[in-house]
Amino acid sequence: MKSLRPRKKGRSGQVMVEAALTLPLVVFLILGALQLFLMLQARVMAHYAVFRATRAGSVNHGDCERMTHSAILALLPTFHSFLGNASSTNLVEHGGGGGAPAKLAAAFRARRDNRYAGGAGAGPRLDGVHDGSIVWLNRSVVGGDIPRPQDRDFDEPGHLRRLEVRMIYWYPLRIPFANWVMSRMYLAQLGLEDYTAANPLLLAERNANWSGREFTDPFQLSAEVGSEMRERIRRQQYVFPIETTFTMRMLTPLKSRFFSSMNCPR
Q1: Nearest residue to 78 via CA among 246, 244, 234, 260
Q2: pLDDT digits (tens, 9 = 90+) for 183-199
Q3: How confident is the model at residue 219 (pLDDT cuts 50, 70, 90)?
């Protein structure tokens, strides 16, 4: 019986070592799966948000402010739990109260300037470390140039103007550990930045070798979007740009004062 004890101790030690080596990968698989499901929800909501933004522009002469507000209001549930207990402090600070509509209004009011950190005088950042813009909206008009001061031929037969909107939603990755690992993987996959430091998934390997040469790039980001993504991640603001588009016929005449730039303010 005594001869069996050293063998049991050896086996238990081996199991502990194997568990220590595989635990980071198991944890990442669980947290990563949760983060991917949240990203899927955010993508579905982004499609709805760009529709709401396009419609707001269509019925309001192309007004950027209304378009941006419509997009932010549609996306709020994907990055801020305004009905949870965590928002109670912010509600008090910003004059919120009452039921769900009042809480939603308070959460939107703090972000109506298209900033995760809230507008001027909003106090500390409302969503952890994020302080950048929530969405980028780029517009184009199909069917002719934008007349000044407005489209006076709007009601003429055969006269058709369509508003096309491309939206970038800077979705914040909110699951700890998974957000950092996935951000590094995305940068490498998109060919934006290699990662060769310590491998957070396999402790047996000293360094990772994540580079764009080893991944298949499913899509190409524009230089501007790629630069913004890299800069935010360097500031430990882990985000992923979700791009969606929508087109709708103009239901009100275009007004040139809303088109000093085709990009809505960021």
Answers
A1: 244
A2: 998 888 888 888 877 77
A3: low
